[in-house]
Amino acid sequence: MEMSPLAAALLEAQVQFLMKDLSGPRLQKIIELGLNDALEHAQDLRLNEVVTPLMIKETVQQYAIKLQLRSAVPEIASAVAHLLHEQIARKQTHIDQLLPGVYLREFLQKAMEMKEMRMRLLDELKSNPFLPRLLADLLMRYLHQWTEQHTPRLLQRFWQPAIADAQHPSKLYDLILQLCESCLQDLCEQLKDLDDEHLLESLLDAWEMVRHRAIGRISAYIHPADVEDFFVIIYEYWQNLRQTDFYSELLDTGIDAFFSVYGDSTLADLLADLGIRKEMMLADAMRFAPPVLRVLRRKKMLAPTLRKLLQPFYESAQVHQLLTAAPST
To answer: Whose C-alpha in 45, 59, 91, 227 is 20 to 30 A from the C-alpha of 242?
Structure first.
């Protein structure tokens, strides 16, 4: 239905009224009134009444699993890597400022309590056939290099067959391999019997030697390209991980656990438990809304948007009937 001149005038008047409210000092009052109403209703609405676990799971699946991130990610990673490297290089922050000793002690004490896992890890190390071979290979390589540098050429003719590499096992290699296996097993058994308090103090002593070092020293050993490569590797790993059933099931389990705890809670209680207060929400709204609205108004986008939202109402048959029935002045 075509809009009457009176309806068009009313539409324009309302657009200008809203423009003034959204661009003036009344904006904070409008947002505050809206927040008050929302928080008042939040006392009577429970989480399960508003959303379901399935709705959240579908949203998470869409953005955490199905969303195909484009090539901008490596470019962002490159920019972040270079800026991060520069920032770290300038920092004089000490390691213990990032990880205070009191928290490190708590982490280590908790690790000491997980004795079953520690024992299992040591058993795996003790029975792993590749670790002794790696140690034996390194020792053989060291012997080979040492004999080349310190043994007269005449004697090297007798040494070389004895220190063959692991691909051509020699008696010397077999002996070193057995020695590595024996030492590794003995070491694991000693670590099992090591007193927890003694182990904890040894680790803390090692921490004491490095805790005052500045993190800026790290940048001397790491190139920005290395940081960028790590970003890309982690991103590619996450791209692969998020396609696994384990990742999907982990997200679903977390959502189910959240709803099992807060599903019957009111939205007001949920916000309170999360530490989100009205003052925080109002401050965030006033941080973003005014500059965004100023830009929209300056670019002449705000009025057309308001007009598009209101125009269907003023073109409706109900408004036409009301304006037609209204007595003229």
So the answer is: 227
Q: CB–CB of 108/200 below 8 Å?
A: yes
Residues in a beta bridge with 276: none
For residue 140 the two structure tokens come to 């053989």
Could you read off the pLDDT of 70-111 as tens digits, one per residue? 667 777 777 887 888 787 777 778 888 888 889 999 998 898
Token pair 């077999």 in the structure block, residue: 174
Average pLDDT score, the chain: 86
Burial class (CB in 10 A: 0-12, 13-18, 19+), 182: exposed
Indicate the SS3 state at residue 68: coil
Which two structure tokens, joined as six digits, stand for 319? 């408004």
pLDDT at 141: 82
The predicted pLDDT at position 52 comes to 96
| 3-class secondary-structure state, position 73 | helix
Q: Does the pLDDT at position 10 exceed 70?
A: yes
Count up the domains in the chain and report the number. Answer: 2
Say if 82 falls within a structural domain: no
Instruction: Report how far apart the first and last C-alpha atoms of the chain are (Å, whole number).
Output: 24
Residues 279 and 244 in one domain: yes
Return the bridge partners of 266, or none: 46
Residue 310 contacts residue 11 (beta carbons within 8 Å): yes
3-state secondary structure at position 329: coil
CB 318 within 8 A of CB 1: no
Together in a domain, 209 and 239: no
d(C-alpha 32, C-alpha 183), whole Å: 71
Q: Are residues 280 and 246 in the same domain?
A: yes
- By CB neighbour count within 10 A (0-12 exposed, 13-18 middle, 19+ buried), where does 28 fall? middle
Identify whether residues 101 and 201 lie together within a single domain.
Answer: yes
The DSSP letter of residue 94 is B
pLDDT-derived band at 166 (thresholds 50, 70, 90) equals very low
Domain range spanning residue 284?
Answer: 5-71+234-325
* Rounded Cα gap, residues 216 and 95, in angstroms: 10
